[in-house]
Amino acid sequence: MIKLSLAPVSYFWAKEQLLDFYQQIKTTPVDIVYLGETICAKRRQMRPQDWLNLAQELQAAGKEVILSTLTLIEANSELSNTRKICQQSDFMVETNDMGAVQMLLNKQPFVSGHSVNIYNHRSLDLLAKQGLKRWVMPVELSHNSLNDILKAKSEHIETEIFAYGKLPLAYSARCYTARNHNLAKDDCQFVCLDYEEGLLLKTQEQQQFLSLNGIQTQSAKKFNIMADLARIKTMPIDILRISPQARHTPEIIQIFADALAGDCDTDSAQARLTKLENNGFCDGYWYGEAGMDMCESVKM
After folding, report:
1. What is the pTM of this model?
2. Span 49-65, mean pLDDT?
3. How far apart are CA 236 and CA 185, in angstroms?
4. Most CB contacts within 10 A, which of 11, 30, 50, 95?
């Protein structure tokens, strides 16, 4: 049976909003919850002990909890915090850069996030021999590329794919949200708090193009793989990852859980998801097409 996971919250939410969000998640049918700050070390409303306390609460509620590391490490303090996460033994770690991977090789099992760019079975097998238990497929790969990798790999490893939410596309040392407000990164005044799902970027023709989330660039539209769930069920995929949304995340989780359990067909599930999202979806990367396209009609 395919499991559901909840990715780390990408956005900068107030501590109260974040804690309320995870209180709701406790009662959802999601199996795995990833916790931690993965975007910007300046987002410090949640302290390390706060994350650990939250992890223990979710674990007590029956969730498998994974602690996630920063994606872009730029300072000694960030390196030190990453090392502390990797050295604790209460929860497995999702590594989001190769520095964190190096800290865990041959020491304890770990998960590689989508930003650890694994594009072939040789890399997958090499890391699996050194402790990699689960990998999250890079979001730009197609189902054909994924099939090729999984058929060629020799080591046993869990496969997780991004299933719903704004696609995490790129990371930069520059903070684009601060720049939009003519602020320096070191004096950003935490303007990310004003954008609970990122800052939408449009083209001159007013077409939704990208979403800016601090140092992270995301897709403007939300990726949605529901239309191809029948194919996914036939593939050796273990986990579908849902990215936290400012609204409707428990409902989204329930819709995916119902579709996986066969309690509703994919067309009905897609219709339910469409009612929760006004800006449309994309799924192009999954079909080997432009990422911003919606190609749900392309089944093979």
Report:
1. 0.95
2. 97
3. 42
4. 95
